[in-house]
Write a structure and sequence with these properties.
The complex is a heterotrimer of chains A (324), B (454) and C (418). Chain B is an alpha/beta fold. Chain B has two domains: 230 residues, Periplasmic binding protein-like II (D-Maltodextrin-Binding Protein, domain 2, 3-Layer(aba) Sandwich); 206 residues, Periplasmic binding protein-like II (D-Maltodextrin-Binding Protein, domain 2), CATH 3.40.190. In chain B, strands 1, 2, 3, 6, 10 and 11 form a six-stranded mixed beta sheet that branches. Chain B has a three-stranded antiparallel beta sheet with strand order 8-7-9. The longest helix of chain B has 18 residues. Chain C folds into three domains: 45 residues, no CATH class; 134 residues, no CATH class; 219 residues, MetI-like fold, CATH 1.10.3720.10. In chain C, helix 7 packs antiparallel against helix 10 and helix 8 runs antiparallel to helix 9. Classes of the chains: A mainly alpha (324), B alpha/beta (454), C alpha+beta (418). Chain C: Belongs to the binding-protein-dependent transport system permease family.
């Protein structure tokens, strides 16, 4: 069967199935399991009301449980076994991993990513949001800076290859160097700094996201606060740093953490730009080099990523609980 | 399933066939008894065997254009024996064959693209040994026959060694590509020895040119072209036995002999004057893109070491024998190691024996089985009994000669090593080396990785 | 900001310029890609895309067939035009690949054999190369480059080439011309834009197949989670039941679970239950991975719907199912749209999930995999093809992005700002 037909069929079955499930399960619940008959109408309605939420939630809980909760446990258990999965080796994979140069490089680079990408993206996002705030063509400018968000990491990497290429007829950096009579360099091979050249791609893509949200937050600041500050004789920079920034600090934190999470998951950019060579490996791409070969090691790396995320995850859950 | 795999080039040699064109409209394009083919053996073979009503199931890695060519070879078999041959090719052959062999649904014969998997399956008892006289026959009839016997001899489930495969179709890696026009204009001669090749390298620099185009980039498989260099040099600097020990890790990866070979590679690649764009550029230049320097005006390099498949990636203006040609990557005059050749090849193994499988293997021993594909282009063989006149192009013939003159044949080491090394640590290690790390520490890192996967 | 900058026009100017700079920097890489995707492959390797509007100068080797050779005394002459197509413009030419622009048009470039006096007094023959006006006579130097004196009048012509700007050439050789000679010319070619890269990528390089595969993955993987999530979000927003708070918290927690964790266990599970690597598997996987955001976004939106509408409907006897389908779902359209865009962009652009959950053969490659694992390798240096492929893959998301930006922004705000 051709994938297209299969796809159409899946949509029909999937959508039909979902609708059918929700519809039929409701009918079954109301008519047959707890029918609202005379004798115990009140009790049955109450019972049906108690069950119905779970009917609504069931598919989502199943899918979430299977694809996100179970893997946390499943991955951890798998990471305690050797490569073929038939021998229990405790924390062997982790011990082995931490003793390896490649892993330590990946871990270190990952910290660079987590420090630099969210900071730079938030900074530029805030800058653009502030600068375009009252600009007549501000929305066009924002739209253009926002655009990379729609592009895949693979596509973005390819786009940036046209910036970094060694050939001065392709790469802009080397074209400029060539113009000034300097020898061509390969930005992706300069030790340590090559990480930043790769990270810039991520910053390029995420700045738009930061900008959109921070721009909305800036607009949410009450006019009176700012006017009061102007009357007090504050200059624009003071207003920006002393009044506006503290007002939107919460939003900045949200933007920052959101980009951090994304950064921890992205392997595509490193994979397409350097393939992890020249000491640019990060944990997600390091994991992929073990995927399908040594599942024990791959899951161990995944679990390390999970551990890095956990503190922020707990913080997020606390916040959510507070708001309820 | 492999996440990283060296691109498979079994297919690309076929592009060499551009000139051969679309001549094979009919099922049997060559008239029996005509041309330079050795039909005698074929006719005797046809008289001896009658397999009417039997079917031979074969799976292998050849698809598309190559499947069409091998189907022609099989059709002559059908014609001779009356059997039915059912060949199916798959891109994911290596996974499929393991699954089907375990499930007991294996075909009669399987065509393995490299010996590693065959050896693996033999040790699990999934392959049937070839008849006992095969080893002797291969040793006598193949050039560098003993090498081929070794490559197809594995330990079975019972722990005893048998020949498990018959090599059919070979790829050649020890080639240096150059432009005869540029050589002519500059007055360069084709080097006969490694010493001369190194002299030529220096002379080109003296003349103001850049000798080598080297590209190690290959997406996720970046680094593999460097492993071919090191393997080729390894074979030229040390005895083949050392090479074998290296492949099986009987000598560690950081053995001084290996390190010496890496450093010899460094003589070429770590000199910015010797490599187009400098050593750094070599690490990121895609290997498919790198030979383009030979065709540039003015030429940006004069030499390019790469396997027989590379013409597939030459620019459109390339014409083999005219503005581009190749010579054997020479051996050292001072070392008495003969003419070693590095390559790869496919082998037929029995996964599910029947009367017809043995007859098919007999057929594959006949020169005609090789000649039928040679004539369709994109096929080299180690079979010494074939008639070189049958080769479809001069280039193929010249490559065939290099194979025939080989005193030693060794299989691409990185294909034989465990995937973590041969398709992982070895690649990245070479990139680190080209980037400036010293050979010793690179080799040590690779050995550490090897130790960790035991 | 006019409170601040409006009074200070200089600051306003600076702002304008700064924003302009940022926008240009942000756009340059993409523009480079777009321009390159339309350029001819040869021209890309000769000049940068920023010079795409100018003619390209490139050195080429010409091999004119030795047809119509005439004899002139001891010499053989081959005449013709270097341009097969008949048009073009030559700016320089030469006889060796190393120096293809040794002479200018209108000149004759010739090799002479001359007698030189070596330092030890011996007479020797050496070759000198001279360029001189085609209608003039060669002027011989008194000494070679190495400083050896040349015997006057000893020069004998070996080979010469004259090329005019329109490509007409005349090649003179002292021996018979049996093989095609190698002539080198530097030509100027007009900019060459066209669809050829796109045509190639879509017809012979399999990008069409990858495009269809991407579409096949994306549509079900976008539609199905929306439905499932909408019901769950309604339950979490408008139904009362014990543990609701914890479930919402759990969804918030799952938002950040790295999907790397799911790869190995889920692929193993898929293999065990017979789904294996297949489109069905990737639809299920994308559904699972997309749900937390979907539930979270939709719940946040639904909870903001006016309470009295829903309650009055319930008072009128509507069941939850009716309230959901008749009232909440239509009202939630903006949130549904914004999640749909998210999920669409995410699945369309995904590389990781496709690499793991789809078979690794060329028939099931999606565009990202096709580019990352195939084209970047097999077409590594063919920038025009790469650019066209990239543009094919980003065109649909860009259209969706610009057409539905409003919803995307709204979704982002709902998802991040509370």
């Amino acid at each position: 069967m051709s994938p297209i037909l299969q796809g159409i069929l899946t949509i029909i079955i999937g959508v039909g199935g979902c609708v059918g499930y929700f519809y039929l399960s409701n009918i079954i619940l109301d008519r047959f399991v707890f029918p609202a008959r005379k004798d115990d109408q009140g009790r049955n309605i109450a019972r049906a009301t108690a069950v119905r939420p779970w009917l609504f939630l069931m598919p989502a809980i199943l899918a979430l449980g299977l694809y996100l909760v179970y893997p946390v446990v499943g991955s951890f258990l798998r990471s305690l076994y050797n490569r073929s999965g038939d021998e229990f080796i405790g924390l062997g994979n982790y011990v082995q991993m931490f003793s390896e140069h490649g892993f330590r490089v990946a871990l270190f680079n990952n910290f660079l990513w987590v420090l630099f990408v969210p900071a730079a993206a938030t900074f530029f996002g805030l800058l653009v949001a502030q600068l375009t705030d009252r600009l007549r063509w501000g929305s066009i400018a924002k739209s253009l800076i926002f655009m990379p968000m729609a592009i895949s990491f693979v596509g973005a990497s390819l786009i940036w290859k046209f910036v970094y290429a060694v050939d001065p007829n392709i790469g802009i950096i080397n074209a400029v160097r060539d113009y000034f009579g300097l020898a061509a360099i390969d930005p992706l091979q300069i030790p340590f700094w090559n990480n930043f050249f790769v990270m810039i791609i991520m910053v390029w893509m995420q700045t738009g996201f930061a900008m959109v949200i921070l721009s909305a937050a800036l607009r949410g600041i009450p006019e009176e606060t700012i006017e009061a500050a102007i009357l007090d004789g504050a200059n624009p920079f003071q207003i920006f740093f002393r009044i506006k920034i503290p007002q939107i600090a919460g939003t900045i934190a949200v933007v920052w953490t959101t980009i951090t999470f994304l950064t921890l998951k992205v392997f595509d950019i490193v994979y397409t730009m350097t393939g992890g060579n020249f000491d640019t490996e990060i944990l997600p791409s390091y994991m992929m080099s073990y995927m399908f070969r040594d599942d024990g090691r791959a899951t161990a790396v995944a679990f390390v990523i999970m551990l890095i995320v956990t503190p922020v995850m707990i913080y997020n859950i606390r916040q959510a609980r507070k708001e309820l | 399933m492999k996440y990283l795999s060296k691109p498979s080039f079994l297919g690309s040699a076929a592009v060499l066939a551009l000139s051969a064109g679309a001549a094979f409209a009919q099922d049997m394009p060559f008239e029996v008894g005509e041309g330079d083919f050795q039909w005698d053996g074929y006719e005797t073979f046809a008289e001896q065997h009658d397999l009417s009503g039997q079917t031979v199931e074969i799976t292998g890695p050849w698809t598309g254009n190559e499947k069409e060519k091998v189907d022609v070879v099989f059709r002559y078999f059908e014609e001779a024996t009356g059997a039915n041959v059912n060949y199916s090719g798959s891109d994911s052959f290596e996974q499929d064959i393991v699954i089907s062999a375990r499930a007991g649904t294996a075909p009669n014969l399987a065509v393995f693209p490299q010996p590693g998997l065959a050896a693996d399956m033999a040790s699990q008892g999934l392959l049937t040994p070839l008849p006992d006289d095969t080893a002797e026959w291969v040793a006598e009839n193949f050039s560098a026959g003993d090498s081929w016997v070794d490559l197809s001899t594995y330990e079975g489930e019972d722990g005893e060694e048998h020949v498990y495969g018959l090599f059919y179709r070979v790829d050649l890696k020890s080639l240096v590509w150059y432009s005869p026009i540029a050589f002519d204009e500059m007055g360069y001669e084709i080097p006969e020895s490694m010493e001369e090749l190194k002299e030529l390298t220096e002379q080109i620099v003296d003349d103001g040119g850049t000798p080598w185009c080297i590209g190690l980039g290959s997406g996720a498989a970046t680094g593999w072209p460097a492993t071919d260099w090191v393997e080729d040099l390894m074979l030229r600097m040390h005895a083949p036995e050392v090479y074998d020990q290296w492949v099986t890790n009987e000598i560690p990866f950081n053995d001084p002999q290996v390190v010496e070979s890496i450093d010899e590679f460094g003589w070429f690649i770590r000199n910015d004057e010797y490599v187009r764009g400098g050593a750094q550029a070599a690490a990121t230049t895609d290997f498919r893109d790198s030979p383009s320097g030979l065709f540039a005006v003015p030429p940006t390099c004069y030499l390019h070491r790469q396997a027989s498949f590379i013409p597939a990636f030459f620019p459109d203006s390339a014409e083999l024998g005219d503005n581009v040609d190749f010579f054997y990557f020479p051996s050292y005059e001072e070392k008495d190691l003969g003419n070693p050749v590095l390559g790869a090849g496919t082998l037929f193994s029995i996964t599910n024996p029947s009367e017809a499988t043995n007859v098919m293997l007999e057929y594959l021993k006949l020169p005609i089985a090789h000649e039928l594909w040679m004539a369709q282009d994109g096929f080299l063989t180690a079979h010494a009994g074939v008639n070189p006149e049958v080769y479809a192009t001069d280039a193929q013939r010249a490559m065939g000669e290099i194979l025939a003159d080989a005193t030693t044949f060794r299989f691409d080491a990185s294909d034989l090593m465990p995937a973590e090394i041969g398709a992982g640590a070895f690649w990245t290690g070479m990139i680190d080396y080209v980037g400036g790390d010293d050979a010793e520490s690179v080799a040590e890192t690779i050995q550490d990785r090897w130790d960790s996967i035991r | 900001m006019d409170n601040i900058a409006g009074h200070k026009s200089s600051l306003s100017l600076v702002t304008n310029i700064a924003v302009l700079c940022l926008v240009v920097i942000w756009l340059i890489p993409t523009v480079g890609l777009l321009v390159s995707s339309f350029r001819d492959r040869e021209q890309i390797s000769e000049t940068g895309w920023w010079a795409a509007m100018f003619p390209v100068e490139s050195a080429e080797r010409m091999r004119p067939e030795p047809e119509g050779v005439t004899q002139d005394g001891d010499y053989y002459v081959l005449e013709g035009n270097v341009f097969e197509a008949g048009s073009g413009s030559v700016s320089g030419f030469g006889l060796t690949g190393r120096d293809p622009g040794a002479a200018e048009v209108g000149q004759t470039y010739a090799w002479f054999e001359v007698e030189v006096t070596e330092e030890d007094g011996e007479i020797d023959d050496e070759r000198i190369e001279i360029a001189y006006p085609a209608d003039g006579e060669p002027e011989f130097p008194e000494a070679t480059e190495d400083g050896l004196p040349i015997t006057p009048g000893s020069a004998v012509l070996q080979r010469s080439l004259t090329v005019a700007e329109n490509g007409d050439f005349s090649y003179v050789n002292d021996g018979e011309i049996s093989r095609a000679p190698s002539l080198y010319v530097i030509t100027k070619q007009p900019p060459d834009f066209g669809w050829q890269n796109y045509r190639q990528i879509l017809t012979s390089d399999g990008m069409d197949r990858a495009f269809i595969n991407t579409l096949t993955v994306t549509v079900p993987a976008t539609v199905i989670p929306i439905l499932i999530a909408a019901f769950a979000a309604y339950a979490l927003a408008w139904m009362d039941f014990p543990g609701r708070g914890w479930l919402v918290a759990a969804v918030v927690g799952l938002l950040v679970v790295p999907l790397q964790l799911a790869l190995v266990p889920m692929l193993t599970l898929h293999n065990q239950i017979g789904i294996g690597q297949s489109f069905l598997g990737i639809w299920l996987a994308h559904t699972g991975f997309g749900l937390p955001l979907a539930v979270y976004l939709l719940r946040n939106y639904m909870i903001g719907l006016p309470r009295d509408i829903i309650e009055s409907a319930k008072v009128d006897g509507a069941t939850d199912f009716q309230v959901f389908t008749k009232i909440v779902l239509p009202l939630s359209f903006p949130a549904l749209a914004s999640f749909a865009i998210f999920q669409f962009l995410w699945t369309w652009n995904d590389l990781l999930v496709a690499k793991v959950f789809l078979p690794s053969n060329s028939e099931s490659w999606v565009m990202t995999v096709k580019i990352a694992d195939d084209l970047l390798g097999s077409r590594g240096g063919d920038w025009g093809i790469l650019a066209a492929a990239a543009f094919v893959s980003i065109a649909v998301p860009l259209v969706v992005f610009f057409a539905m930006q409003k919803y995307l922004v709204r979704g982002l705000l709902a998802g991040s700002v509370k």
